[in-house]
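Provenance and format

Records in this collection were gathered into a single text stream. Each protein contributes a sequence line and a token line. The two records reproduced below are adjacent in the stream.
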Amino acid sequence: MSVERSVAQLLQQIARQDVVQIGPENSAGRAAALVHIAEQYGFEYGETRRTGHKDAQVLVLMYRDPRPEARAREAATLAAHPQAGNGGPVPGMRPGSLKPLPEAEAAVAQGTDRIRFDALAEAGGKKKQLLAFGYCAVLPLVLLIAGMPLGALFGGAALAAFVFGGFKIGAVRRQRIAQRLTEAGFAQVRDEQGRTRFLRPGQQLPGHANPFAV
């Protein structure tokens, strides 16, 4: 989807809805740029879900921030960028692109980290792990039935090691992202579903378990 169309669709949602959807996007960086734009209109990052073929895409949900400073930020953005979405300049982005201006680079990088953290956490969740290791158990059984006991032994062990290694790498990546976000001033909290979330200073989690249902 073109930059102009992506921005126009986002701003249409912002004008009509209290919860907006960004994506599905193939790139966390592109999604983070759109997140930054939405933040300038008084929205706050909610969460990221994996979607698409093999969960290869990200879908970001954002909610309207009710705080007075968010409403003031929205008013200032509307006044400064009256043609955004109609071919005019977009807050924080270089003309005709989703590449951040120097003053927005840090915010977009932090948004990218939040998106990747949520996506990695979903990929490494307990349900995903149970499903993956379930496949590891099925392979040896199939090979045994086929009369290949050695293949069952070594194939099952190799697959289990590969799966375990993948989850371990994901955990290490999450730890590194968590450290960067903490150093940038984000607060690590648990939501009502037990998930680890990172909130910017002053941000609060919405007060019920599933505020992002669309």
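Adjacent record:
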Amino acid sequence: MQDLKIRTKSFTIECWKLCKNIPKSREYDAWARQLIRCSSSVGANYRASQRAKSTADFIYKLKIVEEEVDES
């Protein structure tokens, strides 16, 4: 489990670095903001899944992680 925590944090940081290098324009701004939001949500939701109250809650929270990764 520790490995995924590290990997999701690393994923977020790499997305932030990518967004930092995107040209500053109106067209790219919306894309970069969305990438930052969904990539940071991956790690946050993964950590929330580790505190799930039941198996069903755990699965539900991992599905959210999956959706955010797909969006990223």
